[in-house]
Specification:
A: about 290 residues; MetI-like fold; 2 domains; elongated; B: about 260 residues; alpha/beta; Rossmann fold; 6-stranded mixed beta sheet; 4-stranded antiparallel beta sheet; binds adenosine-5'-triphosphate; binds magnesium ion; transport (chain A); membrane (chain A); MetI-like_sf (chain A); cell membrane (chain A)
Chain lengths: ~290, ~260
């Protein structure tokens, strides 16, 4: 409970600053309208008007909350206006991409730790792959795959996997190499096979690293999914919602979708945090 | 012990580490025979190659030249045949396993049956006086108890040889005395062959049937002292007897001679 107060204070400061910014950014438009109509606006009127514009430059927090509320609870979950519907579509792709990315990262990490050749050959490529901006590569992948008939979930999940495998790979290479010389020597005195050393020593040692990289990886998968939902033709998912919002200047819709994505990310990271607690506790490693 | 083949036999063992600062001659022309059931201590100044020699016996290190036979075969084959249990200076228990789980580790690796594992874990826990601690995690035990658990782990699969590298080095003297006494009883009961590295003259003399004195740079054996003390349980008070003092004196002289050689 002690931790909640500072968090609340920070939230409050952000909200206050946000309202200030909304007032400031939207004022120009209100003054403009008033000048055109030949009327004067007092401060009270200004505050009221800047907070209730249908298409503000910066929507006020309560407008975003309203948009979020309406998107989540005000629509049927099958409606194209429902944030639950779009959120679910994004979540589905994120989870698939995350699973594929994690598996790929895990397998590559095990390979790298066990084979010097793989260490030399895979790692530079993995690093290079992450220097290519995903915004540049995502539309190409979507378009190319669509041209061979692959549409829908899989191309988007591939982009998500592409972003999420890297943190898992890097974290797991470090984690699998975490056992010290003594622990490895001990396994040698038992003449343990590589597989036994992997399952009984390297993997358990790597778990704290695994969970840390899963948290980064799942967030990366979500970003990858949303970016993959942006290219033309996409019609579902939070990314598509962002895009259509910006087509029509629906800033409230954009912000609501953004917040929905943030909520989704927070939930995913929290879920991994819980899994981490449970697993480490069961292994007697909880701190 | 006459006539029986030695369980460990080193002939002209040399080991040179290639390091960034040039070669380090860790062992030079080491010759040693250890008979089955002996308790052999290795003593010598820091850096004289005690750990290195023990690791050679365990095939964790490979001699540059010379021959090293363990149970009649090469050290590497003996390692593969799981001939020895090794106790490191640090307990090195896996934090994610309970004490029983740690002791079970070698048994799982060596494919002992489930029932056999449980029986052996109980047995060695009793042997090191840790009954009832099987379900605890390592961090719940004191350093001395952790070290006892690591000894239990080395004993669990009943290898013929026990190699111990300063197992009690980090413990205070009272705990150390107690563990020494227990180790001696355990050795007597199990009839194992023990190789034991230490810095302490009283510890070496109290425990051993043979004391190997080494000198540094390059590490060589300068003296092998056969103890006239009784084989079997020895009361701690034996350390005040003239026989004990005489051997301790001889070890001390051996260590000094080694140093004089170096200067
Ligand atoms: N892996 C290694 N690489 C290079 N040099 C090493 C290595 N292991 C040991 N040495 C060197 O070999 C020599 C003998 O080391 P060793 O650890 O066997 O000594 P020790 O007698 O066990 O010393 P201590 O009593 O301090 O434990 C030392 O000079 C050490 O620096
Ligand atoms: Mg040493």
């Amino acid at each position: 409970m002690r931790n909640i107060l500072p968090v609340l204070v920070v939230c409050l400061v952000i909200v206050v600053l946000w309202y200030g910014a909304a007032l400031w950014l939207n004022a120009a438009w209100v003054y403009d309208q008033a000048a055109r109509a030949g009327t004067q606006v007092g401060f009270g009127q200004l505050v009221h008007d800047t907070m209730t514009l249908p298409r503000p430059k910066l929507p006020a927090p309560h407008q975003v909350l309203g948009g979020l509320w309406d998107g989540i609870f005000g629509q049927s979950v099958t409606s194209k206006k429902s944030l639950v519907y779009h959120g679910w579509m994004t979540l589905e792709v994120t989870m698939l991409g995350f699973a594929v990315g994690t598996l790929a990262g895990l397998i590559l990490a095990i390979g790298i730790v066990h084979s010097r050749a793989m260490d030399m050959s895979v790692m530079p490529w993995a690093i290079a792959s992450q220097t290519i901006p995903v915004l540049a590569i995502a539309p190409m992948v979507i378009v190319v795959l669509a041209s061979v008939g692959l549409k829908g979930v899989i191309p988007k999940a591939l982009i998500a996997a592409y972003l999420s495998f890297f943190p898992v790979l890097v974290g797991m290479v470090k984690g699998l190499r975490a056992p010290d010389g003594l622990q490895l020597d001990l396994m040698r005195t038992y003449n343990a096979s590589r597989t036994q050393t992997l399952t009984m020593l390297r993997l358990p040692s790597s778990l704290p690293y695994l969970f840390a990289s899963l948290k980064v990886g799942v967030a990366a998968a979500l970003v990858g999914t949303i970016v993959a939902e942006l290219p033309a033709g996409a019609s579902v998912g939070l990314g598509a919602r962002l895009l259509s919002g910006s087509y029509y200047g629906q800033t409230i819709q954009i912000w609501a979708a953004l917040f929905m994505a943030a909520i989704l990310a927070a939930l995913l990271v929290a879920a991994i945090g819980i899994a981490e607690k449970v697993v480490l506790k069961r292994m007697g490693m909880a701190r | 012990m006459m006539g029986a083949a030695p369980i460990i036999e080193a002939q002209g063992v040399d080991l040179v580490f290639q390091t960034a600062d040039g070669p380090v001659h860790a062992l030079k022309d080491v010759n040693l025979k250890v008979n089955k059931g002996d308790f052999v201590s290795f003593i010598g100044p820091s850096g004289c190659g005690k750990t290195t020699f023990l690791r050679c016996i365990a095939a964790l290190e490979t001699p540059t030249s010379g021959s090293l036979k363990v149970r009649g075969v090469s050290a590497e084959e003996a390692r593969k045949a799981r001939s020895y249990g090794y106790v490191f200076q640090a307990a090195g228990l896996f934090p994610w396993r309970t004490i029983a789980g740690n002791i079970r580790l070698p048994l799982e690796i060596m494919d002992f049956t489930r029932a056999d594992r449980a029986r052996r874990v109980e047995e060695v826990l009793k042997l090191v006086d840790l009954e009832g601690f099987g379900k605890k995690y390592p961090w719940q035990l004191s350093g001395g108890m952790q070290q006892r658990a690591s000894i239990a782990r080395a004993l669990s699969f009943d290898a013929e040889i026990l190699l111990m590298d300063e197992p009690f080095g980090a413990l205070d003297e009272i705990v150390r005395d107690k563990l020494n006494e227990e180790l001696l009883k355990l050795w007597h009961r199990t009839q194992k062959t023990i190789g034991f590295v230490t810095h302490s003259i009283p510890e070496a003399v109290y425990l051993s049937t043979h004391i190997v004195v080494m000198s540094p740079r390059p590490g060589r054996i300068t003296d092998v002292i056969e103890s006239p003390l009784p084989r079997g349980p020895r009361p701690l008070e034996i350390r005040d007897t003239p026989e004990f003092m005489a051997i301790a004196q001889r070890v001390r002289e051996g260590l000094h001679a080694g140093h004089a050689y170096e200067v």
